[in-house]
C-alpha cells in the first residue's frame, strides 16, 4: 500500500494535480487511505466504496492464490457478489485474472498486501477533509460492522448503505452508487 501511495504521488506530481478527489473500492480503499496519510495536502475529498481500514484475508484463500488455483477466483466471486448472480459477458474478475500465472502474480500479491496492511486505523484517524463511505448491505468481504467501525474513525465523514448489494457495488448497484457519489461531490 505504501509503494502504491508513493507511485500515485509521483503520477500526481508529474501531472501537477492538486485538490484531488480520490475514489477507491475494496483494496483501492486501503491505497487511498495510505495516500491520504502520506500526502494529505494534495487532497480535497475521499470516497471509500466497499472498504475498511483493515482487510484481513483468510489464509486458505491466500494459499489458493499463491498456488495459481482458479478456485481462488471462484471463491472471491462467490463472496464478492450478493447471491449467485450471472453476469452478462461473463465473470468480470476472470476477464482480468485469466491464468494460473495471473492468479499467482496479481491476485495473490494483492491479497497478501490487503492482509498485511496495518496502518489503516492510524491513517483514518488523521483524515480531516470530507469523506464518504459506501457499503453494500449484504457485503460478505467487508461487513457492515467493519465498515461502520471504519467510518467512525474518520472525522467529517458520511456513510451510505446500499440495500440488497454485495461487495461489487459499482457493478451490482451502479446507478445508486453513482448518484450518491455525485451528490457528495456537489456538496
Provide a quick synopsis of the model.
With 187 residues, the chain is α/β, with parallel strands linked by helices. Helix content is 52%, strand content 13%.
Task: Looking at this protein, list some descriptive labels.
alpha/beta; Rossmann fold; 10 helices; globular
Describe this structure in words.
- By secondary structure, the chain is an alpha/beta fold.
- The chain folds into two domains: 2-55 and 118-186, Alpha/Beta hydrolase fold, catalytic domain (Rossmann fold, 3-Layer(aba) Sandwich), CATH 3.40.50.1820; 59-112, no CATH class.
- The chain has ten helices and four strands.
- It has helices spanning 2-14, 27-38, 59-66, 71-80, 92-96, 100-116, 120-125, 144-153, 169-172, 174-186; strands at 20-25, 43-49, 131-136, 157-162.
- Strand 3, helix 8 (144-153) and strand 4 form a beta-alpha-beta unit.
- The two termini are 29 Å apart.
- The model has no long low-confidence stretch (mean pLDDT 91).
